[in-house]
Amino acid sequence: MLKQLNSFIRTAFLGGVTVILPVAILWVVFHWLFHRVTQLVQPLTNLLVARSQLQVFVAQLLAIVIILAFCFAVGVLVRTRLGAWLFHALERSVLRVAPGYNLVKEIVMQVLGAKKSPFSSVALVQLFGNETLTTAFVTDEHANGYYTVFVPTGPNPTSGLIYHLPAQAVHLIDIPAEAAVRSIISCGVGSQPLLAKYLAARTKQPDP
Known about the structure:
This protein is an alpha+beta fold. It has seven helices and five strands, in the order H-H-H-H-H-E-E-E-E-E-H-H.
């Protein structure tokens, strides 16, 4: 009886934590993000409060909407022939020489999905010329047919080694990068989809 009670209490507690903790973390993240954004738009917020006597919270929301609308308007402008020409001229003559501009642009484009992430292509690679396979991410493709791949180490996928391999040693696997990362973090647990895709592709290849 006591054992069942302890099991019930433990299960109920863990169930409550799994429900409440993600919501709490999400709320903290959104609260932090809103605070940072409102700090960035504070000059515009102060101007709106002074000119229109709006409440601070309403002015903050309005300032964010104005900035988003401005970004949208600029995006529409640069899609026109004249706007694109003006932007490229400004980028070539001024922005390209600004320290850190290219790095920031690359990060923003990848975060917003405007540019393919270098870690979005998953592959199984043969590093040693035999049947040994290693999970990797394709980071670059070259005109001579070679691939540059990043082979992460488990359970920490942020560290690893870079290899330059011929195409025949790189087997692209059509699975989400997140699934590959999870298998790396778990030291190989959950790798079955990787191998299944690889073996399925091999069976479809015609015999030489």
